[in-house]
Amino acid sequence: MSRPTHLAVTVARRPVAIPQAHDFALSTVTLPDLAEGQIHVRNHYLSVDPAMRGWLSDAKGYADRIEIGDVMRAFAVGVVVRSRAPAFHEGDRVMGLFGWQEQAIVAPDAVMLRINADAPRLSPYLGVLGLNGITAYFGTTDVCRVQRGDTVIVSTAAGAVGSCVGQITKRLGGRTIGIAGGREKQRQCIDEFGYDAAIDYRSEADLDAAIARCCPNGVDVYFDNTSGGISDSVLRHIRIGARIAICGTAAIESWNPWPLGERPNRHLLIKRATMRGFLATDYRDRYAEAVETLSAWVDDGSLRYREDVLDGIEAAPGSIAHLYAGKNTGKLLIRLSAAED
Amino acid sequence: MSRPTHLAVTVARRPVAIPQAHDFALSTVTLPDLAEGQIHVRNHYLSVDPAMRGWLSDAKGYADRIEIGDVMRAFAVGVVVRSRAPAFHEGDRVMGLFGWQEQAIVAPDAVMLRINADAPRLSPYLGVLGLNGITAYFGTTDVCRVQRGDTVIVSTAAGAVGSCVGQITKRLGGRTIGIAGGREKQRQCIDEFGYDAAIDYRSEADLDAAIARCCPNGVDVYFDNTSGGISDSVLRHIRIGARIAICGTAAIESWNPWPLGERPNRHLLIKRATMRGFLATDYRDRYAEAVETLSAWVDDGSLRYREDVLDGIEAAPGSIAHLYAGKNTGKLLIRLSAAED
Fold first, then answer.
1. A104 and A226 share a domain?
2. Which residues contact A57 (CB under 8 A, 6 or more apart)?
3. Is there a domain that residue A297 lies in?
4. What is the rounded distance in angstroms from the CA atom of residue B163 to the CA atom of residue B166?
5. What positions does the domain Enoyl reductase (ER) occupy (chains A, B) (predicted)?
6. Which of A4, A116, B199, B218 has the fewest CB atoms nearer than 10 Å to its CB?
7. What is the pLDDT of residues A197-245, one digit of tens each?
């Protein structure tokens, strides 16, 4: 059932800033033997996530850094083709850290989610029903504690996480303002993801004025995926008791050296505001709760999502640069030959 | 009982950065009539607080800004000499926003604390038993949720707030590291306020190395009274789940224009840390709880404090600059002629 060799993307060199195609190598490698306690997964879709830049950086981050020559760490969805671990069986559908490769031999703790046998498609479990949706779910409900009537700004508002944050916030009774780059994403915010207002930061000469126009009473919650100048502007408009979730830093090209920006201290002090960094993986014990809720919302049509699918593992090496250029519209995925949909 | 005139310090012009003596005017003014519902307080001690700089700034802050010609807003302790408000009586001892003046005609809501008739001295109610102690109490117990075993760094560690934070943290079972400017304050941290370690940031060539030496396992809690380079260094050493209280920004000369510093976003994200601004006044409903606890600790000798007393209202105009120069050792107060101790 397993093939002796398969295609895998390894790290060829450490990226200086945004990882580019030439930082990776695609090669045919021999699959290791399946040891006792391991599972063998055939990947259907590979994920492309902003966090991958951090995993590759030289700096000490929130996950063990990846070494040169390693298969690129990545989330993927696939099917168990053989198991020597008691909790898994052939045919099980799983999402986890299976890497940018066609097949994976992994320990069971690489699996982050089991996917119901009756789920119509696997790919949403890398996005709206995977870590993007889970991040949005806990970011809004737990980190930002969105309340009915809150004015909520979301950066990268049409992105895989942002679009979920906007829609979940609406369900919780918040007023949503999306910040996105470009007219098309601005349109998506309104037409597809139900934001009450959307700002195209690229075409606004004065982002502060645009925020003031959309949030005349100030900002209660800021779900920050960008850092940088967008965040500086939003911070100038927070209200007393504001909650700011730090989820990503897409606007920062490199953290080496550490970039300068306006110190937030006085805003936080005057407004008695809270700024909190979080990772979905801190909520691992509650994934099932989130996925169940998000699935129900997808099924009833109240949680919409977009996918931007690149075909073939050959597309993987250049995909992070594609993501950071903001060229994707929706969750960026790589579809492999094993995928049936 | 009241005199028709008294001495008051008014704001002569808006300070550019740290308020200086020449930004104020001392003059003899006529006391207004006591209207129905008001109280007449004779001040014994006037307070000098870092927050006064913010009150005077042109920028929109957390309190109504003070206008040119107004009596300088200030906390003071004193005695009610006449009352036309039902809840107050002649002889009542009170702490509140009575201004930099010898006497005050105020509404009852200017009173922030009533002082027990058996309290031996009034001045502690401007410091360790006043907003400094209350700030430290809620900052450690509520904002930072200090737990047994936490490693806690305090900036301006020998100051009026910082010295309380260090001592309260010890009582809660934390390990305390003080950062202060100068050898004498470093000594006070250890000898008087019981810190486990103290760093004199002025004599350290490499503050990061000093922090790493004092906190080999990283920092769980940072009680930040400074902002600036000290905070940048501490942030580089926080642990997962760290809590950072933003209480003051003593290291920042001016917030106009907004100063630049290292963006904290990625530290907060990687470490899933929380940075929260707070003001003691948000806890007004719980002052009595805090003062009762703090009083018991002062009485049993486990909460020590220092006062730095300047004599006469003539000392008030230059006192904020004195404070920001770090020349005081302990809570800075102005003693007026009415004071009996």
1. no
2. A14, A15, A65, A255, A256
3. no
4. 5
5. 21-334
6. A4
7. 999 999 999 999 999 999 999 999 999 999 999 999 999 999 999 999 9
Name A223's bridge partners. Answer: A154, A245
Closest Cα in chain A, distance from residue B100 (Å): 23
CB atoms B260 and A259 under 8 Å = no
Beta bridge partners of A145: none
CATH number for the domain including B250? 3.40.50.720
Note the pLDDT of residue B136: 98
- The length of chain A is 341
User: pLDDT tens digit string along A258-282?
Assistant: 899 999 999 999 999 999 999 999 9
Provide the domain limits for residue A224. Answer: 131-281
Q: Do B62 and A224 touch (CB under 8 A)?
A: no
The residue length of chain B stands at 341
**Which of A269, A270, A276, A279 is the best residue to mutate to test the B interface, defined by the most B CB atoms within 10 Å of its own CB?**
A269
In a domain, B102, yes or no: yes
Pairing of strands A151-155, A39-47: unpaired
Q: Convert the pLDDT of each residue in B311-336 to its tens digit.
A: 999 999 999 999 988 888 889 999 99
Which residues, 6 or more positions from A289, have their beta carbon under 8 angstroms from its beta carbon?
none
Tell me how crowded residue B76 is: count the other CB atoms within 10 A of its CB: 28
Cα–Cα distance, B248 to B280 (Å, whole number)? 12
